[in-house]
Amino acid sequence: MMPIAENIAAIREKMSAAALAAGRDPGEILLVGASKMNDAAACKAAVAAGIDALGENRVQEMTAKLAEDAYTGAPLHFIGHLQRNKVKQVVGKVDLIQSVGSLELLAEIEKTAAKLGIVQNILLEVNVGMEEAKSGFAPQDMEEAAKAALECPHVHVQGLMTIPPADASPEENRAYFHKVRALYVDINAKLFHNNFKYLSMGMSGDYEDAIACGATMVRVGSAIFGARHYT
Length: 231
Ligand SMILES: *Cc1c(COP(=O)(O)O)cnc(C)c1O
Fold this sequence. Notes:
By secondary structure, the chain is an alpha/beta fold.
């Protein structure tokens, strides 16, 4: 097996074990490959190995890899910070925008999807650690954000996404996951008739904890593709 396929198989095993330990059905948890800084060949290897979706962070990189058919055969998600002036390059090009973290971005996505005559699937991003430098809605603003999204006929909210603070201890990290799961359950019942599909949380270092805390989608990069080399 190729390393990418081996890594995916090993992660799937750990995901299953974490799900079973939590009394959950392993089949209800999706593995998204966070493929930033990895080339089209790596993306294609992940698709061939049965990844459930691929997620990209940077619009320019995604556009270039789309032209190389990097994602054919798997759904494509946008998972990074999305600037309003780049929304046109993403709406309609991806199956899910996971990282909608401001009312301004939500409005821009609605406007763009309306022009295209489509409905864009999104997740609302929770800034659970209330970090200055991070995008996402503060937990206390989530309900208002969800209500605003319900007013957008060309946007379909399918759940929530979060990235806890990078410096959190494992215990703090699990507390953040629990908090977002509680928000998810609450908003889903109050405003979405329990039709939410995705609670996206957990990365290479903490996806098993995220599954224990209720994640239905994990976003894993380096554990699949190897360490990223920033230059
Ligand atoms: C890069 C990235 C991931 C994956 O990070 P790893 O630690 O490499 O698994 C997950 N989510 C988002 C939003 C990312 O940008």
